[in-house]
Protein backbone atom coordinates (compact mmCIF):
# COMPACT_ATOMS: atom_id res chain seq x y z
CA UNK A 1 0.00 0.00 0.00
CA UNK A 2 1.23 3.50 -0.84
CA UNK A 3 2.06 5.88 1.96
CA UNK A 4 -0.64 8.36 2.94
CA UNK A 5 -0.31 12.05 2.09
CA UNK A 6 0.74 14.42 4.88
CA UNK A 7 -2.76 15.93 4.97
CA UNK A 8 -4.53 12.57 5.40
CA UNK A 9 -5.98 11.51 8.76
CA UNK A 10 -3.68 9.09 10.56
CA UNK A 11 -3.43 7.27 13.87
CA UNK A 12 -0.48 9.50 14.78
CA UNK A 13 -2.35 12.77 14.29
CA UNK A 14 -5.73 11.56 15.62
CA UNK A 15 -7.39 13.61 18.35
CA UNK A 16 -8.29 10.32 19.96
CA UNK A 17 -11.42 8.89 21.57
CA UNK A 18 -13.71 10.28 24.25
CA UNK A 19 -12.81 7.40 26.56
CA UNK A 20 -9.18 6.45 26.36
CA UNK A 21 -8.44 2.94 25.10
CA UNK A 22 -5.26 0.99 24.40
CA UNK A 23 -4.24 1.06 20.72
CA UNK A 24 -5.67 -1.88 18.75
CA UNK A 25 -3.51 -4.87 17.85
CA UNK A 26 -2.96 -5.41 14.12
CA UNK A 27 -5.57 -2.80 13.13
CA UNK A 28 -5.47 0.94 12.70
CA UNK A 29 -7.72 3.15 14.87
CA UNK A 30 -10.02 3.79 11.89
CA UNK A 31 -10.23 0.11 11.02
CA UNK A 32 -11.44 -0.42 14.55
CA UNK A 33 -14.03 2.34 14.11
CA UNK A 34 -15.22 0.76 10.87
CA UNK A 35 -15.48 -2.67 12.51
CA UNK A 36 -17.53 -1.24 15.39
CA UNK A 37 -19.99 0.29 12.92
CA UNK A 38 -20.37 -3.00 11.02
CA UNK A 39 -21.13 -4.85 14.27
CA UNK A 40 -23.66 -2.28 15.52
CA UNK A 41 -27.40 -2.87 15.66
CA UNK A 42 -28.15 0.46 13.98
CA UNK A 43 -26.09 -0.64 10.96
CA UNK A 44 -28.06 -3.87 10.56
CA UNK A 45 -31.35 -1.98 10.69
CA UNK A 46 -30.31 0.10 7.65
CA UNK A 47 -31.31 -2.91 5.57
CA UNK A 48 -34.98 -2.23 6.26
CA UNK A 49 -34.97 1.55 6.02
CA UNK A 50 -36.10 3.54 3.02
CA UNK A 51 -33.83 5.48 0.76
CA UNK A 52 -36.52 6.78 -1.63
CA UNK A 53 -38.63 3.67 -2.07
CA UNK A 54 -40.16 1.97 0.93
CA UNK A 55 -38.48 -1.33 1.62
CA UNK A 56 -41.48 -3.54 0.80
CA UNK A 57 -42.02 -1.94 -2.62
CA UNK A 58 -39.54 -4.31 -4.22
CA UNK A 59 -36.36 -6.28 -3.67
CA UNK A 60 -34.40 -4.47 -6.36
CA UNK A 61 -34.50 -0.97 -4.91
CA UNK A 62 -31.77 0.61 -2.84
CA UNK A 63 -32.14 0.60 0.90
CA UNK A 64 -30.12 2.70 3.34
CA UNK A 65 -27.78 -0.26 3.72
CA UNK A 66 -26.99 -0.75 0.04
CA UNK A 67 -26.81 3.03 -0.37
CA UNK A 68 -24.22 3.24 2.42
CA UNK A 69 -22.17 0.45 0.82
CA UNK A 70 -22.23 2.26 -2.53
CA UNK A 71 -21.11 5.48 -0.82
CA UNK A 72 -18.27 3.56 0.86
CA UNK A 73 -17.19 2.08 -2.49
CA UNK A 74 -17.03 5.47 -4.20
CA UNK A 75 -15.35 7.17 -1.22
CA UNK A 76 -12.71 4.45 -0.97
CA UNK A 77 -11.85 4.80 -4.66
CA UNK A 78 -11.41 8.54 -4.18
CA UNK A 79 -9.33 7.99 -1.02
CA UNK A 80 -6.94 5.62 -2.74
CA UNK A 81 -6.21 8.01 -5.57
CA UNK A 82 -5.81 11.06 -3.32
CA UNK A 83 -3.72 9.11 -0.77
CA UNK A 84 -6.09 9.98 2.06
CA UNK A 85 -7.27 7.51 4.70
CA UNK A 86 -9.40 4.82 3.08
CA UNK A 87 -10.44 3.20 6.38
CA UNK A 88 -11.69 6.52 7.75
CA UNK A 89 -13.63 7.14 4.52
CA UNK A 90 -15.24 3.72 4.85
CA UNK A 91 -16.13 4.33 8.50
CA UNK A 92 -17.79 7.67 7.80
CA UNK A 93 -19.62 6.29 4.75
CA UNK A 94 -21.01 3.26 6.58
CA UNK A 95 -22.07 5.43 9.52
CA UNK A 96 -23.37 8.51 7.72
CA UNK A 97 -27.02 7.43 7.61
CA UNK A 98 -27.28 5.55 10.93
CA UNK A 99 -29.52 8.25 12.41
CA UNK A 100 -32.14 8.14 9.70
CA UNK A 101 -35.74 7.55 10.71
CA UNK A 102 -37.94 5.03 8.95
CA UNK A 103 -39.44 6.30 5.64
CA UNK A 104 -36.51 8.46 4.58
CA UNK A 105 -36.88 12.23 4.48
CA UNK A 106 -40.63 12.04 5.04
CA UNK A 107 -39.97 10.35 8.37
CA UNK A 108 -37.30 12.85 9.35
CA UNK A 109 -39.55 15.83 8.54
CA UNK A 110 -42.43 14.33 10.51
CA UNK A 111 -40.28 13.55 13.54
CA UNK A 112 -38.70 17.00 13.42
CA UNK A 113 -42.18 18.52 13.51
CA UNK A 114 -43.19 16.32 16.45
CA UNK A 115 -40.02 17.38 18.28
CA UNK A 116 -40.34 21.12 17.53
CA UNK A 117 -41.00 22.01 21.20
CA UNK A 118 -38.24 19.69 22.43
CA UNK A 119 -35.14 20.70 20.46
CA UNK A 120 -36.13 19.26 17.05
CA UNK A 121 -34.88 16.18 15.22
CA UNK A 122 -32.06 16.12 12.67
CA UNK A 123 -30.75 12.88 11.16
CA UNK A 124 -27.13 14.01 11.15
CA UNK A 125 -27.19 14.75 14.84
CA UNK A 126 -29.02 11.49 15.38
CA UNK A 127 -26.26 9.57 13.56
CA UNK A 128 -23.76 11.06 16.00
CA UNK A 129 -26.07 10.36 18.94
CA UNK A 130 -26.35 6.75 17.76
CA UNK A 131 -22.60 6.16 17.79
CA UNK A 132 -21.97 8.28 20.91
CA UNK A 133 -24.81 7.15 23.14
CA UNK A 134 -27.53 4.89 21.81
CA UNK A 135 -25.48 1.83 20.87
CA UNK A 136 -24.82 -0.02 24.12
CA UNK A 137 -22.35 -2.81 23.49
CA UNK A 138 -19.11 -2.27 25.37
CA UNK A 139 -18.27 -2.75 29.04
CA UNK A 140 -16.07 0.31 29.43
CA UNK A 141 -18.03 3.08 27.75
CA UNK A 142 -21.42 4.06 26.35
CA UNK A 143 -21.80 4.17 22.57
CA UNK A 144 -19.06 2.99 20.19
CA UNK A 145 -16.40 5.42 21.45
CA UNK A 146 -15.26 6.29 17.91
CA UNK A 147 -12.28 8.51 17.14
CA UNK A 148 -12.75 12.26 16.88
CA UNK A 149 -12.14 12.11 13.10
CA UNK A 150 -14.97 9.61 12.52
CA UNK A 151 -17.36 11.66 14.69
CA UNK A 152 -16.24 14.84 12.91
CA UNK A 153 -17.17 13.24 9.60
CA UNK A 154 -20.51 11.87 10.75
CA UNK A 155 -21.64 15.32 11.88
CA UNK A 156 -21.96 16.79 8.40
CA UNK A 157 -23.88 19.87 9.44
CA UNK A 158 -25.60 21.33 12.45
CA UNK A 159 -27.04 24.60 13.73
CA UNK A 160 -24.90 27.01 15.74
CA UNK A 161 -27.02 26.42 18.80
CA UNK A 162 -26.50 22.65 18.61
CA UNK A 163 -22.81 23.15 17.82
CA UNK A 164 -22.37 24.97 21.14
CA UNK A 165 -23.98 22.08 23.02
CA UNK A 166 -21.86 19.46 21.26
CA UNK A 167 -18.38 20.47 22.43
CA UNK A 168 -15.36 19.26 20.40
CA UNK A 169 -17.12 18.09 17.20
CA UNK A 170 -19.33 21.19 17.20
CA UNK A 171 -16.45 23.66 17.27
CA UNK A 172 -15.81 23.77 13.55
CA UNK A 173 -19.32 25.09 12.88
CA UNK A 174 -18.68 27.97 15.29
CA UNK A 175 -15.22 28.76 13.88
CA UNK A 176 -16.33 28.11 10.26
CA UNK A 177 -13.68 25.44 9.75
CA UNK A 178 -13.64 22.43 7.42
CA UNK A 179 -13.82 18.75 8.38
CA UNK A 180 -11.01 16.33 7.48
CA UNK A 181 -10.58 15.46 3.77
CA UNK A 182 -12.00 11.97 4.29
CA UNK A 183 -15.27 13.51 5.50
CA UNK A 184 -15.28 15.89 2.54
CA UNK A 185 -14.79 12.96 0.16
CA UNK A 186 -17.63 10.95 1.72
CA UNK A 187 -19.96 13.93 1.54
CA UNK A 188 -19.55 14.10 -2.24
CA UNK A 189 -19.45 10.31 -2.66
CA UNK A 190 -22.89 10.35 -1.01
CA UNK A 191 -24.12 12.81 -3.62
CA UNK A 192 -22.64 10.79 -6.51
CA UNK A 193 -24.20 7.59 -5.15
CA UNK A 194 -27.72 8.84 -4.56
CA UNK A 195 -28.06 10.90 -7.75
CA UNK A 196 -27.11 7.88 -9.83
CA UNK A 197 -28.95 5.16 -7.96
CA UNK A 198 -32.07 7.29 -7.78
CA UNK A 199 -31.97 7.56 -11.58
CA UNK A 200 -31.62 3.78 -11.75
CA UNK A 201 -34.38 3.09 -9.20
CA UNK A 202 -36.64 5.77 -10.68
CA UNK A 203 -36.38 4.17 -14.11
CA UNK A 204 -36.95 0.71 -12.64
CA UNK A 205 -40.08 1.90 -10.84
CA UNK A 206 -41.18 3.63 -14.07
CA UNK A 207 -41.63 6.93 -12.26
CA UNK A 208 -39.27 8.63 -14.70
CA UNK A 209 -38.55 7.86 -18.36
CA UNK A 210 -35.43 7.77 -20.51
CA UNK A 211 -36.93 10.45 -22.78
CA UNK A 212 -37.43 12.86 -19.89
CA UNK A 213 -33.97 12.09 -18.47
CA UNK A 214 -32.46 13.14 -21.78
CA UNK A 215 -33.42 16.72 -20.86
CA UNK A 216 -30.51 16.48 -18.40
CA UNK A 217 -27.16 17.18 -20.09
CA UNK A 218 -25.09 14.89 -17.86
CA UNK A 219 -27.34 11.94 -18.64
CA UNK A 220 -27.96 12.74 -22.31
CA UNK A 221 -24.26 13.02 -23.19
CA UNK A 222 -23.37 9.61 -21.75
CA UNK A 223 -26.55 7.99 -23.06
CA UNK A 224 -25.81 9.16 -26.61
CA UNK A 225 -22.16 8.07 -26.41
CA UNK A 226 -23.25 4.60 -25.34
CA UNK A 227 -25.77 4.38 -28.17
CA UNK A 228 -23.15 5.48 -30.70
CA UNK A 229 -20.84 2.65 -29.66
CA UNK A 230 -23.61 0.08 -29.11
CA UNK A 231 -26.59 0.97 -31.35
CA UNK A 232 -28.27 -2.37 -30.57
CA UNK A 233 -28.09 -2.04 -26.80
CA UNK A 234 -31.44 -1.74 -24.98
CA UNK A 235 -33.11 -2.18 -21.59
CA UNK A 236 -31.26 -2.55 -18.29
CA UNK A 237 -27.84 -2.93 -19.93
CA UNK A 238 -28.23 0.38 -21.74
CA UNK A 239 -29.31 2.09 -18.52
CA UNK A 240 -26.53 0.59 -16.45
CA UNK A 241 -23.84 1.27 -19.05
CA UNK A 242 -24.95 4.92 -19.06
CA UNK A 243 -25.06 5.25 -15.27
CA UNK A 244 -21.69 3.64 -14.68
CA UNK A 245 -20.14 6.11 -17.12
CA UNK A 246 -21.74 9.03 -15.28
CA UNK A 247 -20.37 7.75 -11.95
CA UNK A 248 -16.93 7.38 -13.48
CA UNK A 249 -17.07 10.86 -15.02
CA UNK A 250 -18.07 12.40 -11.67
CA UNK A 251 -15.35 10.57 -9.74
CA UNK A 252 -12.62 11.47 -12.26
CA UNK A 253 -13.73 15.12 -12.26
CA UNK A 254 -13.77 15.20 -8.47
CA UNK A 255 -10.35 13.60 -8.13
CA UNK A 256 -8.69 15.85 -10.71
CA UNK A 257 -10.28 19.04 -9.38
CA UNK A 258 -9.35 18.10 -5.81
CA UNK A 259 -5.76 17.30 -6.79
CA UNK A 260 -5.47 20.82 -8.19
CA UNK A 261 -6.99 22.39 -5.06
CA UNK A 262 -4.68 20.38 -2.82
CA UNK A 263 -1.66 21.39 -4.83
CA UNK A 264 -2.64 25.06 -4.63
CA UNK A 265 -3.49 25.10 -0.92
CA UNK A 266 -0.60 22.77 -0.09
CA UNK A 267 -1.79 21.79 3.41
CA UNK A 268 1.01 20.40 5.58
CA UNK A 269 -1.24 18.39 7.87
CA UNK A 270 -4.83 17.65 8.85
CA UNK A 271 -5.14 20.86 10.88
CA UNK A 272 -4.18 22.90 7.81
CA UNK A 273 -7.05 21.16 6.01
CA UNK A 274 -9.42 22.13 8.83
CA UNK A 275 -8.42 25.78 8.81
CA UNK A 276 -9.12 26.32 5.07
CA UNK A 277 -11.92 28.73 4.25
CA UNK A 278 -13.59 26.21 1.93
CA UNK A 279 -13.44 22.45 1.27
CA UNK A 280 -10.50 21.15 -0.78
CA UNK A 281 -12.42 18.19 -2.17
CA UNK A 282 -14.87 19.24 -4.86
CA UNK A 283 -16.11 19.14 -8.45
CA UNK A 284 -15.17 21.50 -11.25
CA UNK A 285 -17.58 24.40 -11.85
CA UNK A 286 -18.92 22.71 -14.99
CA UNK A 287 -19.60 19.44 -13.18
CA UNK A 288 -21.16 21.26 -10.24
CA UNK A 289 -23.75 22.86 -12.48
CA UNK A 290 -24.38 19.64 -14.46
CA UNK A 291 -24.84 17.73 -11.23
CA UNK A 292 -27.21 20.40 -9.92
CA UNK A 293 -29.32 20.06 -13.07
CA UNK A 294 -29.67 16.32 -12.42
CA UNK A 295 -30.58 16.95 -8.78
CA UNK A 296 -33.27 19.44 -9.79
CA UNK A 297 -34.65 16.95 -12.29
CA UNK A 298 -34.88 14.25 -9.63
CA UNK A 299 -36.51 16.56 -7.12
CA UNK A 300 -39.20 17.62 -9.58
CA UNK A 301 -39.83 14.32 -11.32
CA UNK A 302 -39.02 11.64 -8.75
CA UNK A 303 -39.09 12.89 -5.15
CA UNK A 304 -42.28 14.88 -5.82
CA UNK A 305 -43.93 12.20 -7.96
CA UNK A 306 -47.49 11.53 -6.77
CA UNK A 307 -46.73 7.90 -5.96
CA UNK A 308 -43.77 8.89 -3.80
CA UNK A 309 -45.90 11.67 -2.30
CA UNK A 310 -48.65 9.22 -1.29
CA UNK A 311 -46.12 7.15 0.61
CA UNK A 312 -44.72 10.33 2.14
CA UNK A 313 -48.14 11.24 3.53
CA UNK A 314 -48.66 7.78 4.97
CA UNK A 315 -45.22 7.88 6.59
CA UNK A 316 -46.03 11.25 8.02
CA UNK A 317 -49.16 9.93 9.70
CA UNK A 318 -47.50 6.84 11.09
CA UNK A 319 -44.69 8.85 12.73
CA UNK A 320 -47.07 11.50 14.07
CA UNK A 321 -49.49 8.89 15.49
CA UNK A 322 -46.69 6.91 17.13
CA UNK A 323 -45.16 10.01 18.69
CA UNK A 324 -48.47 11.37 20.02
CA UNK A 325 -49.52 7.93 21.21
CA UNK A 326 -46.32 7.32 23.21
CA UNK A 327 -46.18 10.86 24.62
CA UNK A 328 -49.79 10.65 25.83
CA UNK A 329 -49.46 7.17 27.28
CA UNK A 330 -46.00 5.75 27.84
CA UNK A 331 -47.56 2.45 28.89
CA UNK A 332 -48.02 1.77 25.16
CA UNK A 333 -44.24 1.33 24.93
CA UNK A 334 -42.51 -2.04 25.28
CA UNK A 335 -41.21 -2.36 28.90
CA UNK A 336 -37.52 -1.61 28.25
CA UNK A 337 -38.40 1.57 26.34
CA UNK A 338 -40.90 2.57 29.02
CA UNK A 339 -38.11 2.35 31.55
CA UNK A 340 -35.80 4.40 29.36
CA UNK A 341 -38.45 7.09 28.80
CA UNK A 342 -39.13 7.28 32.55
CA UNK A 343 -35.42 7.74 33.29
CA UNK A 344 -35.10 10.51 30.70
CA UNK A 345 -38.25 12.17 32.07
CA UNK A 346 -36.87 12.05 35.61
CA UNK A 347 -33.65 13.71 34.43
CA UNK A 348 -34.98 16.39 32.11
CA UNK A 349 -38.78 16.47 32.19
CA UNK A 350 -40.87 16.54 29.02
CA UNK A 351 -37.84 17.35 26.85
CA UNK A 352 -36.10 14.22 28.06
CA UNK A 353 -39.24 12.16 27.67
CA UNK A 354 -39.75 13.37 24.09
CA UNK A 355 -36.09 12.69 23.23
CA UNK A 356 -36.35 9.10 24.43
CA UNK A 357 -39.57 8.57 22.47
CA UNK A 358 -37.92 10.12 19.41
CA UNK A 359 -34.89 7.79 19.82
CA UNK A 360 -37.23 4.80 19.86
CA UNK A 361 -39.10 5.95 16.74
CA UNK A 362 -35.94 6.99 14.86
CA UNK A 363 -34.43 3.56 15.46
CA UNK A 364 -37.39 1.77 13.87
CA UNK A 365 -37.19 0.19 10.42
CA UNK A 366 -39.99 0.92 7.93
CA UNK A 367 -41.68 -2.41 8.50
CA UNK A 368 -41.35 -2.23 12.28
CA UNK A 369 -42.96 1.24 12.31
CA UNK A 370 -45.85 -0.02 10.16
CA UNK A 371 -46.35 -3.07 12.43
CA UNK A 372 -46.10 -1.02 15.62
CA UNK A 373 -48.67 1.43 14.25
CA UNK A 374 -51.03 -1.46 13.47
CA UNK A 375 -50.50 -3.07 16.86
CA UNK A 376 -51.35 0.18 18.65
CA UNK A 377 -54.09 1.67 16.50
CA UNK A 378 -55.77 -1.19 14.66
CA UNK A 379 -58.30 -2.89 16.96
CA UNK A 380 -58.40 -6.02 14.76
CA UNK A 381 -54.63 -6.49 15.17
CA UNK A 382 -53.41 -8.78 17.95
CA UNK A 383 -50.80 -7.08 20.11
MG1 LIG B 1 -26.65 9.22 2.32
Explain this structure to me?
This protein is an all-alpha fold and 383 residues long. Helix content is 64%, strand content 0%. It folds into two domains: 29-307, Hypothetical protein af1432; 312-377, no CATH class. The chain is built from 18 helices and no strands. Helix 1 runs parallel beside helix 4, helix 7 (148-154) crosses helix 10 and helix 10 runs antiparallel to helix 13 (235-265). The structure holds magnesium ion. The site of magnesium ion has 6 residues, from helix 3 and helix 10.
Compile the SSE list and pairings.
Blueprint: H1 29-38, H2 41-45, H3 64-82, H4 86-95, H5 104-114, H6 123-134, H7 148-154, H8 160-166, H9 171-174, H10 181-204, H11 210-213, H12 217-229, H13 235-265, H14 270-274, H15 285-303, H16 306-328, H17 335-363, H18 366-377
Helix pairs in contact: 1-4, 3-4, 3-10, 3-13, 4-7, 4-10, 5-16, 7-10, 10-13, 10-15, 12-13, 16-17, 16-18
The chain binds magnesium ion.
- CATH superfamily name of the largest domain? Hypothetical protein af1432
Please tell me what the overall shape is: globular
User: Which fold name fills CATH's third level, the topology of the largest domain?
Assistant: Hypothetical protein af1432
CA radius of gyration: 22 Å
**CATH C-level of the largest domain:** Mainly Alpha
Ligands bound, unique: magnesium ion
| Helix share bin | 55-70%
> How many domain units?
2
Average pLDDT figure: 95
Quaternary structure state of the chains depicted: single chain
Order of helices and strands: HHHHHHHHHHHHHHHHHH
Largest sheet: none
- CATH architecture term of the largest domain: Orthogonal Bundle
Low-confidence stretches: none
What is the strand tally? 0
Strand percentage, roughly?
Answer: under 5%
State the end-to-end CA separation. 55 Å
Number of helices: 18
Amino acid sequence: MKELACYAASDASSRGRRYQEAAPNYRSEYQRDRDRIVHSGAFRRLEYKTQVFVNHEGDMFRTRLTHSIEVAQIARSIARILLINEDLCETIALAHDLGHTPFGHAGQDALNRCMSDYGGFEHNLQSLRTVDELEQRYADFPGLNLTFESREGILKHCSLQKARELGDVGERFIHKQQPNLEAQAVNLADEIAYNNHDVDDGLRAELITLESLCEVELFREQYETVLQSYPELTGRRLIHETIRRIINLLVVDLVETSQQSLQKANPANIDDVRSQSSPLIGFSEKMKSQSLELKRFLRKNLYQHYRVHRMTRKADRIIQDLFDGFMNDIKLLPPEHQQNVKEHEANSGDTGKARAVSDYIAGMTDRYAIMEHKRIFDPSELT
